[in-house]
Amino acid sequence: MAQPTENPSEALSLVAESTIALARAEIRLATAEAKAWVIRVGWGLGLLWLGLLLTQVFVLLAALAPVLLAARPWPAVVASLALSLLAALSAFWFAARELRKVKS
After folding, report:
1. What DSSP designation does 64 have?
2. Helix 8-63 / helix 74-103 crossing angle, nearest 10 deg
3. Domain range for 53
4. Would you say residue 3 lies in a domain?
5. Based on CB atoms within 10 Å of each CB, which residue in 17, 71, 91, 96 is the most buried?
6. 59 in a domain, yes or no?
7. What are the pLDDT digits (tens) for 63-89?
C-alpha cells in the first residue's frame, strides 16, 4: 500500500494506476475463466462424440449377433454386447458430467 500524500495530483495518479492494475487483473481472470469454459465444453463434446461412436459399435454388434451366435458361443456374444454397451454408457456419463460442470 502506498503512503498517503498531501499532493492531490499524486493521489489521483495512484488511484489511476490502481484502477488500471485492477482492470488488467480482471481481464486476466476473465480470460482464464473463458479458457477453462472452452476446455470443459471441448472435453464434453469430445466425450459425447466418443459415446456416439461406441453406440454405433454396439448397434453393429447387435445387428451381427445372429451371425456371431452361429460362429461363437452365446456367452462370448453376450459379453461383447455388454462390454460395448458399458463403454458407450460410460462415455455418455463422463460427457454429461463434464457438460454439467459447464452450467455451474
Report:
1. T
2. 160
3. 8-103
4. no
5. 91
6. yes
7. 999 999 999 999 999 999 999 999 999
